[in-house]
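2024-03-11 09:14:02 INFO worker-7 job=invfold-0412 stage=load source=structure_tokens
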């Protein structure tokens, strides 16, 4: 008896080989630890990130975000692209398996007194490529990684939508506070102007004092008009993010109340968390897809083997179609090998260049993530001290203005001193609102840049 011993080459051909280089995650081009120093608060907790349901404690804002996640058109478009990528992957994966088709037919003919009937049935496949060198497998892997990249892109879009909606809500609250401040300042300045005019009529104040008082009134009036516009634009922006008009009952009442309902976000100690950011994972999947494309381009240099085969039965009588002697089969293997010319070398060079491109984009995504988290942490480390100082500044300016106004009414000091104190108080109050908004916005930004909403 003759024994056939398979060689290693034969075993490799039978099992198929993969000409793509094994993928290894690139070393992150950033420090292993998140930055520390004067601008950064001490961190000892290894946890990083929060789910948005823990970040947002305000019930009205949570309701609005829930609506945005179901109604926002950008998110709907992104989810549709995920479904399209999933379908493309299924199409590419199906090419690796033969498509089995079945058919049956009959023909009837009559010539003079002779009748000829033929019946047939067959099952088979046509031009099925035997993937010995991994071309189809790598194309399927590239489609899979492209789908996973699209899925991570959708996750990034979802996190961005949550952060943008919360930031728009906080901005609306801040501008409503600014509008209320401008109106209070306008009313106070108008009372001061009325007083100065009465003093001028009595000969106790000059025209210069009247004109100076008018500048404060008109500046506050201008700020009221501008802030009314800004509040309306804030509401329009919020409606667009949510995908439908937001009823007044869900709008914020004050920025101070909102500040207490936005949780602090832990950032951890190491930079490893950045590798799990959706945009970084998206870039990595794109790199893996490009690596698989290189393998497919290399496989194009090797023979492409395909097989067409069918089995069936044929008979001149339907009753004997499945009887003995009606069985038939066929097999038609074929092979093609590029010899001269063609796009293979260009395709390989292009796929390698694309892989280098996606490698650079992946490394840039990691570096950008590190910078964004570092910037947010630097803001978090100093914003509490800035907010406390700003509140003390408002208190000091309020006391200075009260004293200056009393001295002016008593005829001890000039109106210019009281006017300057009033303007300083107004500016300090505006800066305090901006600082409160910066605190809330930075907590939301830290949630977004960490991207660990699990």
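2024-03-11 09:14:09 INFO worker-7 stage=emit residues=454
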């Amino acid at each position: 008896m003759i024994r056939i011993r398979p060689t290693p080459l034969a075993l490799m051909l039978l099992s198929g080989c993969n000409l793509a280089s094994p993928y290894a995650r690139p070393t992150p081009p950033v420090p292993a630890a998140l930055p520390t120093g004067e601008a950064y608060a001490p961190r000892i907790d290894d946890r990083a990130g929060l789910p948005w349901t823990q970040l947002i404690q305000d019930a009205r804002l949570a309701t609005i975000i829930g609506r945005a996640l179901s109604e926002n058109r950008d998110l709907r478009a992104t989810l549709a692209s995920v479904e399209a990528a999933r379908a493309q992957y299924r199409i590419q994966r199906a090419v690796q398996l033969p498509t089995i088709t079945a058919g049956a037919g009959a023909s009837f003919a009559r010539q003079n007194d002779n009748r000829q009937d033929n019946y047939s049935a067959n099952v088979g496949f046509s031009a099925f490529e035997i993937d010995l060198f991994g071309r189809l497998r790598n194309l399927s892997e590239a489609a899979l990684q492209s789908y996973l990249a699209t899925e991570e892109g959708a996750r990034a879009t979802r996190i961005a939508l949550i952060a943008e909606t919360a930031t728009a809500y906080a901005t609306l609250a801040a501008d409503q506070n600014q509008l209320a401040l401008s109106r209070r300042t306008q009313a106070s300045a108008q009372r001061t102007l009325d007083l100065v005019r009465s003093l001028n009529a009595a000969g106790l104040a000059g025209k210069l004092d009247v004109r100076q008082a008018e500048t404060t009134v008109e500046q506050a009036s201008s700020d009221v008009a501008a802030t009314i516009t800004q509040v309306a634009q804030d509401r329009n922006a919020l409606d667009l993010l949510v995908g439908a008009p937001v009823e007044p009952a869900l709008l914020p009442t004050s920025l101070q109340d909102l500040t207490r309902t936005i949780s602090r976000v832990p950032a951890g100690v190491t930079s490893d968390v950045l590798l799990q950011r959706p945009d970084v994972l998206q870039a990595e999947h794109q790199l893996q897809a490009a690596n698989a494309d290189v393998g497919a381009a290399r496989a194009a240099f090797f023979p492409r083997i395909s097989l067409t085969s069918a089995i069936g039965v044929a008979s001149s009588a339907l009753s004997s179609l499945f009887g003995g002697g009606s069985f038939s089969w066929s097999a038609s293997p074929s092979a093609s090998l590029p010899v001269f010319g063609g796009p293979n070398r260009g395709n390989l060079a292009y796929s390698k260049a694309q892989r280098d491109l996606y490698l650079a984009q992946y490394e840039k995504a990691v570096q950008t993530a590190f910078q964004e988290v570092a910037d947010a942490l630097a803001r978090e480390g100093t914003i509490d001290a800035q907010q406390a100082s700003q509140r003390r500044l408002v208190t000091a300016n309020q006391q200075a203005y009260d004293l200056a106004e009393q001295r002016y009414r008593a005829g001890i000091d000039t109106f210019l001193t009281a006017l300057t104190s009033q303007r300083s108080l107004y500016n300090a109050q505006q800066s305090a609102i901006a600082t409160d908004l910066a605190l809330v916005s930075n907590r939301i930004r830290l949630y977004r840049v960490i991207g660990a909403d699990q």
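2024-03-11 09:14:09 INFO worker-7 stage=report msg="Residues 135-201 form the longest helix (67 residues)."
2024-03-11 09:14:10 INFO worker-7 job finished
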